# Entry
Amino acid sequence: MSNKAFEFSVLMAVYNKEIPEFLEKSIESLLNQTFVPNEIVLVKDGELTEGLDSVIHYYEKKYPYIFNVVSLAKNKGLANALNEGMRVVRNSIVARMDSDDICFFNRFEIQMDYLIDNNLDIVGGQIIEFSKEIEDVISIRQVPLFHKEIVEFMKFRSPFSHPTIMFKKEAFDAINGYDTTIFPEDYDFFVRAYMAGFMFGNVKENVLYFRLGENLSEAIRRRWGIKYAINEVKLYRKFLKIDFFTYIEFTKVLLFKIPLRVLPFKLYSYIYFKFSR
# Structure
C-alpha cells in the first residue's frame, strides 16, 4: 500500500450474500491507490457469513487507523446502510464503493483532482462491466461529463454509475441523504441534489471495474418486472411533484420506460445489453 494518505473517506456496505473473495479484492483495490483514503467506513448490513466477517476482521485489525466498521442488527437495504455509514464519516469528501467491484489504481486521484479543480459537488466516472474476471469485459458504460449534459441525461435515466461517485458531505447532509422509501435510491439522490443547486461532473476515464457476475441474466433481473415498474412509477411521480419533471417529460418517460420492464425477459435482456450501455 502506498504511504501517501489524503483526507477523504470511502463508504461501503456489505450484506450476507456477498462473496468473501470479491470483498477482499475490492478492499485491496482501495488500499493500493495513488491517493489512499484515510478512512474506510464499512457498514455490515445485518448479520454476515463467517467468511465475510473473517475478511472484515482481518483488515480492521491490520489497518485500525483506516477502517471504521459499523454493524447493523438487521438488513434494511442499501439506502439505509449508506445513511447509517454517513453518520460516522469524519471527512468532508466521501467516495462510494460497492463490495464486489474493483477500483482502477488511480481512481481517487483522478476524481479528487477533478472535483476540487472544477469546484464540483458530485463527481463520477466511466465503468467497465465484467463477468468473472476483469478480463471478461461485457460492456463499457459511458455517462456524460459536464453538468448541463448530465442534467439533460438525468431526465431519462441516472447520470452516474453509483459506485463511482465521490461527493462533498455537505451535499449529502443538505438533502438528508438517501430516501429509504424510494428505489432506485441513487437516481433519486442525484435529482434532489440537482434541485438543491449542487454541481455535477463525470471524469472521462474508466475508474471502476463493475462486477456483473457470471450469470448475466440474474445481474439484470432486478431491473425487470412488475415490481420494478411500480417502483419506477413511484419515483417518477416524486420527480413530477418536486418539479424536476414537467407533465410532458413525466408522460414521455412513462410511455417509453415502463413497457420495457414488462417485456418477456429474454427480449428485455437483449435490449438492455444492446442499447442501454
In short: Residues 22 and 242 are 39 Å apart (CA to CA). Confidence is low (pLDDT under 50) at residues 1-5.
